Amino acid sequence: MRIAYLDCASGVSGDMMLGALVDAGIDLATVQAGIDSLNLPSCTLATAETKKCGFRALQLTVEHEPEHAHRHLHHIVELIEGSSLTTAQRELALRIFQKVAEAEAKVHGTTIEKVHFHEVGAVDSIADIVGSAIAWDMLGVDRVVCSAVPTGTGFVNIAHGRCAIPAPATGELLKGIPLAESDVQGELTTPTGAALVATLV
């Protein structure tokens, strides 16, 4: 049995997840080809080696043209259904977005169909989630295990204004998931990262 362990000592976000998977040996060009098939506006995955607290890491950045699109779940489903992703990759990506939609609907007191994706509906978050779905499928593990997850402390500015950390959707997604104590000021775990953990582990 092949097991992947997510060591989330510094939290988890979509770009951190995808960067770690590429660093673990997943072919970036293959992931990029899958992202390209979504027909998002000029979306490129760029990587660079960096050092964090004295240790090397691969930092992944999603480069894209500025956009002001407002997406609902059905818009994202259409992008994924019309892509060249494999059935397994498509199903995983859709499951992750479904998790986000359920959390957003809960915290906003609305329905999944009416949920208006803000940060998670942006090009970079779509690329992070779909790219991670492609990469996890390529990694071919049987089980995913995760450390306790720190959220960080303080406040974060989102589309709905200034919110305490964890942001409402992040908190909802992390229900039932062990949290690690952290006094770091700032958002360590994003809704995208929380959705990936909640779906995969």
Task: Describe it.
The chain is of the alpha+beta class and 201 residues long. Helix content is 41%, strand content 19%. The protein contains seven helices and eight strands; from the N terminus they run E-H-H-E-E-E-H-H-E-H-E-E-E-H-H. A two-stranded parallel ribbon has the order 1-6. It has a two-stranded antiparallel ribbon with strand order 2-3. The chain has a two-stranded antiparallel sheet with strand order 4-5. Helix 1 packs parallel to helix 5 (123-139), helix 2 (28-36) crosses helix 5 and helix 4 (87-108) packs across helix 5 (123-139). The longest helix is centred in the middle third of the chain and has 22 residues, at 87-108.
Concise synopsis of the structure shown:
The protein is α+β, with helices and mostly antiparallel strands and 201 residues long. It has helices at residues 14-23, 28-36, 73-81, 87-108, 123-139, 168-173, 191-200, and strands at residues 3-6, 44-52, 55-63, 71-72, 116-117, 143-146, 155-158, 161-164.
Spell out the key features of this protein:
single chain; 201 residues; alpha+beta; two-stranded parallel sheet; two-stranded antiparallel ribbon; 7 helices; 8 strands
Distance from N terminus to C terminus (CA atoms, Å) equals 15 Å
Total helical elements: 7
What is the global morphology? globular
Helix content, binned percent: 40-55%
**How many β-strand stretches?**
8
Give the topology.
Elements: E1 3-6, H1 14-23, H2 28-36, E2 44-52, E3 55-63, E4 71-72, H3 73-81, H4 87-108, E5 116-117, H5 123-139, E6 143-146, E7 155-158, E8 161-164, H6 168-173, H7 191-200
Parallel strand pairs: 1-6
Antiparallel strand pairs: 2-3, 4-5, 7-8
